[in-house]
């Protein structure tokens, strides 16, 4: 037997090292953490109170019986309000950028909006508006738009001044100035802002739907709470997590396609 034959296999690499060649270390760690959580929940469902820790079988049945229409409605509300917030945020940042007086006048108001908790906006929406859908879009927009404004405006300021002056020397119009220099330069930061805002928006849309909505995931959570069904609450929570992961995965795909030069 030679020294090369000693070890877990002839190549001297362990199964764990082989697995790390196919999956990133962070992914392996995430799988282990989720498996540990699932095992802990299973043990709690056996030895703990059944009303607080339902079995995975009950959760799976609740997950299968979830109305897909409510899931689709919440996703539609989320997508429309996020796109609207993004457009408003980019327009605001573009108008304020390189206008110090306007920025000094309006930016404190934007930061003030960010300081107000989402629950307060939900209450304001209930008192101000009658339409349930308008309430939800209002809350989503008023919470998400300031984040887009702050992130995109800071990213615009991060474009080097000498580069901006050089492009200005060619006397481009405003459309070319922003489409050829500013917007491409801030794209990485905008995509990061989308990731952050999606996490916030998934929580906010659920809170907005909890009050007065007759459809959507928030409405489903209210029904589950009224029926004291922990299994259904857990199932809706799983759906929310899956929606967030799917939307963030979509942003990651767009990021890889548009920013492929960073890894080239």
Tell me what the structure shows.
The longest helix has 37 residues, at 174-210. The protein has eleven helices and no strands. It has two domains: 1-53, no CATH class; 64-262, MetI-like fold (Orthogonal Bundle). The relative contact order is 0.10. The protein has 264 residues and is mainly alpha-helical. The model has no long low-confidence stretch (mean pLDDT 85). It starts with 14 loop residues before the first helix and ends in a 6-residue tail after the last helix.
Put the structure in a nutshell:
The model has no long low-confidence stretch (mean pLDDT 85). By secondary structure, the protein is an all-alpha fold. It is 78% helix and 0% strand.
Set out the fold topology.
Blueprint: H1 15-22, H2 25-47, H3 56-64, H4 68-96, H5 100-115, H6 118-128, H7 132-157, H8 161-169, H9 174-210, H10 217-226, H11 230-258
């Amino acid at each position: 037997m030679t020294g090369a034959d000693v070890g877990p296999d002839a190549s001297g690499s362990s199964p764990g090292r082989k697995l790390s060649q196919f999956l990133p270390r962070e992914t392996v760690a995430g799988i282990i953490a989720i498996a540990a959580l699932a095992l802990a929940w299973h043990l709690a469902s056996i030895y703990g109170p059944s009303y607080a820790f339902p079995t995975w079988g009950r959760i799976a049945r609740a997950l299968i019986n979830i109305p897909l229409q409510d899931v689709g409605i919440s996703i539609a509300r989320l997508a429309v309000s996020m796109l609207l917030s993004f457009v408003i945020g980019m327009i605001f940042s573009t108008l304020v950028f390189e206008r110090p007086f306007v920025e000094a006048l309006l930016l404190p108001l934007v930061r003030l909006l960010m300081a107000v908790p989402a629950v307060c906006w939900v209450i304001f929406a209930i008192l101000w508006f009658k339409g349930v859908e308008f309430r939800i879009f209002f809350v989503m927009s008023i919470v998400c738009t300031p984040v887009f404004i702050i992130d995109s405006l800071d990213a615009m300021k991060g474009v080097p001044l000498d580069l901006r002056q050089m492009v200005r020397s060619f006397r481009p119009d405003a459309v070319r100035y922003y489409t050829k220099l500013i917007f491409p330069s801030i794209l990485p930061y905008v995509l990061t802002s989308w990731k952050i805002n999606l996490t916030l928006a998934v929580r906010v849309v659920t809170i907005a739907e909890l009050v007065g909505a007759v459809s959507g995931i928030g409405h489903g959570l209210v029904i589950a709470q009224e029926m004291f069904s922990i299994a259904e609450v857990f199932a809706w929570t799983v759906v929310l997590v899956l929606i967030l992961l799917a939307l963030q995965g979509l942003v990651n795909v767009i990021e890889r396609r548009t920013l492929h030069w960073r890894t080239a």
